[in-house]
Write a structure and sequence with these properties.
This protein has 156 residues and is of the alpha+beta class. Helix content is 21%, strand content 38%. It is built from three helices and eight strands; from the N terminus they run αββαβαβββββ. The strands form two sheets. A five-stranded antiparallel β-sheet has the order 7-6-5-4-8, with no helix packed on it. A three-stranded mixed β-sheet has the order 1-2-3, covered by helices on one side. It is elongated, with a radius of gyration of 18 Å. The two termini are 35 Å apart. The relative contact order is 0.13.
């Protein structure tokens, strides 16, 4: 899978998109997730799909169907740069090791510093009191944005 990710990343150089994820799914589906700071447009997906179809053919990457999409409102956070980019946003965080008998926390991501950023999560405990959970990038099993949506579908 690392080879497919690398080929995909190389093929997208010069495009104004960020490669978020590449995933093989059942029945030969190859799913590519892209993002842009101002949001992914259908035109972006079309251009990336055409480019990747050619690149995958040249590199003999086997798939039956290619799907290019945006990460959606619950975008996964895969790299340290994602944490910096989405500082002060609401996220759901799953840690590798339990802290106070919990692995999953939901709250506001805080990032301090530039060189090697210090990460923390502000969350409410069971009593409703605001707590701060410091963590490192290596402590994270997985994380994704967890925006609050109103009934009109707008992020808060």
């Amino acid at each position: 899978m690392a080879d497919i990710f690398a080929v995909t990343q190389q093929a997208l150089l010069g495009f104004d998109v960020e490669l978020v994820d590449v995933e093989r799914a059942p029945l030969g589906l190859l799913r590519v997730v892209i993002d842009r700071p101002e949001g992914v447009r259908i035109e972006d997906c079309e251009q990336v799909s055409r480019q990747l179809s050619h690149a995958f053919e040249v590199d003999n990457i086997d798939y039956k169907r290619l799907e290019v999409s945006s990460p959606g409102v619950d975008r996964p956070l895969r790299r340290l740069a994602d944490y910096v980019r989405f500082a002060d946003q609401r996220i759901e965080l799953r840690l590798r090791e339990a802290v106070e008998s919990r692995k999953v926390f939901t709250g506001v991501l805080r990032v301090a510093g530039d060189e090697s950023p210090a990460l923390s999560l502000e969350y409410e405990d069971q009593t409703g009191k605001l707590q701060t959970l410091p963590f490192s990038f290596d402590d994270v099993d997985r994380a994704h944005l967890d925006p609050l949506l109103d009934f009109k579908g707008k992020k808060q």
